[in-house]
Structures are given as structure tokens and as C-alpha cells.
Amino acid sequence: MDTTHREHFTGFLFGLFQLIGIISIIPGVRPTVKWIAFVVLSWISYHLITKTTTQDLAADLGLGSAILTQLLIAFDLMFITHPDTLTNFQDSHTGKITERPFKERALWAYNLYTNPRGIGWAHESPHLPSRPSPSTLPWKFVCVRIFRALLYIILECIAYVLNASNPGMTTPSVPLSHSALHWRALGVIGFGVAGYARINMMHCLLSAGVVACGFSTPERWPNIFGSPLQAWSVQQFWRKVWHQMLRKPVIASTTFTMSKIFRTRTRTHRHQANISNIIQNSLWLLTAFFIVGVIHIGGEYMLIGRMGGGAFKFFVLQSAAIMLEKVVASSWEYFNPSLEIDESDVRTKQQNGQNGVKNSLPDGSSRGERSRVGTKTKSEPPIWIRCVGYVWVFLWFVWSLAFMIDPMVPTGMFIDDFRSFAWSLFVIS
User: Fold this and answer.
1) Rounded to a whole number, what is the distance in angstroms from the first to the last CA of the chain?
2) Average pLDDT over residues 120-144
3) Which residue windows does the record flag with biased composition (Polar residues) (predicted)?
4) What distance in Å separates the CA atoms of residue 71 and residue 53, rounded to the nearest whole number?
5) Long-range CB contacts for residues 400-404, cutoff 8 Å, separation at least 24
6) Do residues 131 and 221 lie in contact, with contact meaning Cβ atoms separated by under 8 Å?
7) Which of 286, 159, 236 has its CA nearest to residue 393?
8) Residue 305: per-residue pLDDT
């Protein structure tokens, strides 16, 4: 991609974006100020994504999506979720946050904005990986995280060599989705492993840094990803394996869209075989992944300088895969009532924080959810079903993730990747 016509990425504007984002979500800020702040945030997002570049293709891809992610978080906390419906279990103060002094409200906004997974808050996902014990010594935690970061750097280097050696990833005129199956599979594996390693590496270094400085404690830093062994379905992958950075704003935005725009009733998670419920749940999934797809357009646009459509197509397709799995799971349960597949997800409006009801359990689940999630009412499928699921998930991503990679191949970002990777580490450091 020719980036000579684009400005160098502006760190000042990016920092200003963070500052305005935090100020705009302080409880008690006037609606007029919120709208002005959102307009400014939108302009900064547009400018950084469409007019600037870091000169590092992988960094552009990540930054573009991260900027729109933060814009969605700010939009949710400004206009959808009322601050009095959010509970921080680490906060010893009682009463409504909107009635506290400005200093406390500003600190509350900072803690919320910089904690996208909601660790320690009522909206924390009940499906996060297990966290370090409170008795974990800080120095030991820091050493382990730094060691793991080094391992992830090595893993990313291996993935880059794999990508640079793959003609399906280095032939600009041939999209990966049109390559031979073995090159397509290797390309998807290399791309996925590289992203997995880099996100993990940054998370490990960030957690080690803040704990070493005494700003946080080890138990506040569960792993960013869950175990791959839980990915026996596409739904399980997005719910329990992949990071949950977008969970809160996407659920809130989707629920808002469904209730205020589509005028549908509250989403239900019960197994109801009526057409209305099937259509509603399908529309909910499609809307959620539509929003996620739009967010990832930011990274794609910052990388290639246009709307490639690959990321959007990939994420929208995920809703179709999950609905197919639900149909198969329902059919299986119908013919095998004694053996039910675990479908115990639960994303309720209490977690969105927009219906005025506070969750009261420290893992982020409501009491209704605890009865379904904490007390496991459905067993995991037997090992043979999970093995079939692993094969299905692998084949699904080999097919669908290639569409997301296609617009990246002509940019040459997978050619001579080691040099690009070394430059990325220099930029991060």
C-alpha cells in the first residue's frame, strides 16, 4: 500500500482522544457536553484512521480497530448505559455515583474506561479465564508475565516465518481464499497465531508493568484468552476463548438497537422452538456481529486505505455459523434428551447496565445467571462430540477467516515479516 500521501500517526491526537473519552463519561456531565465530545471523538477517529499511518502495517491494522472500539465504548457509556446501574465491587463507597464529588466521579470514569473487560465490575463476563490467586506475590507475577511475553515473541516470529514462506500470503495478485486448501489453512493458522501471540505479549507486558509499579494487583489480571480446548463450537470460541474486550459495549449497543429501533421484546435464552424466538435470536446475533464487523473496518481501512470488506464479511458470517450450531444442538437435544449440549451463555440486560438493575455477584453474573452458569445444569458434550466440534471449528475458520485476510495480502504485510516485526517491537518499546 502506498502511504506517502498520508500523514504520520499523531500521538498527540491519540492521547487527546483518550482524555476526551474519559472526560465525556464522567457521571453528571451535561448532555450538550457529551454530544460535543462525541463529535470531536468521531472526527479524531476519522482523521487518524483515514489520514494517518504508523508506517507499520500490522500496527495500522490493530490501531484502526482499537480506535473504533474505544469510540463504541465511549458511545455506550455516554448515551446507552446509565452510570448508576454500574457496580464496581472494588469501590467501598455506597450511594449513587452521580451524587458523589467530582474527583470521585472522575476516578470512577477513568477506572471504567481503562478496564474494557470490566474486571471486578458487575458487568464482568462470567466466562473469563481463571485469574491469579490473591496470594500471588507481585514479583512472582511480574517474572512469570515477562517470561510468557518472551515466549509469545518467539511464537510470533515463528508465525511470521510461516506467513512469509506461504505463497498464499505473499502473492499480491491471488487472494488467500483462492489459494490451494493447504496454503489457505497454513495462512489462517499463521495469521491467527500471530494475532494471538501479539495480543498476549502486549497484555503480559502491560500487566507486568502496572503490577510492578504497584498500580494494580495480580488477581486483577486474568489471561486475555481462554483455553483453545473450549473451542468445540464457534459459539464457544467467541464466548470463552477469544478476548472479551468488546463484550460490554456490543451487548449494550445490540440490546439498544433491538429494543429501540427494531422494537423487539427482551431477548430470551430459553429453548423455545417458535418461529418468533428463532427470528429474534438470529436478528440479535446478526446485529451484534454487524457492529463488531463495522469496528474492524477501522483497522482494515487504516491498513489498505479503503473499504476492503473482508473483516466485515468475516464477522457477519459468524452469526450464521452460531445459528447453524444452535439448530444442530436443538436437534441433538430433541433426539437425545438425556444428553444435552451446554448452551448456558448468558447475556442479560442487567449486564448491559441499561435497565436500572444492578448485578450483585462479583463474577459479573446476575442471580438468575448464577443459577444457570454457576450451578451447571447441562453437562459438556462427550469427548467424541467435542472432537467433531474441533474439526468443525477449524474448517470453519479456514474457510471464513481467509476472507478477512484477503484485503491484506496485496499490501505485502506478510512479505519480509521479520523486519516488520522488529520495527513493531521498536515502536512498542
Assistant:
1) 25
2) 94
3) 349-358
4) 19
5) 400/314, 400/317, 400/318, 400/321, 401/188, 401/191, 401/192, 401/314, 402/175, 402/176, 402/177, 402/184, 402/187, 402/188, 403/177, 403/310, 403/313, 403/314, 403/317, 404/296, 404/310, 404/311, 404/313, 404/314
6) yes
7) 236
8) 92
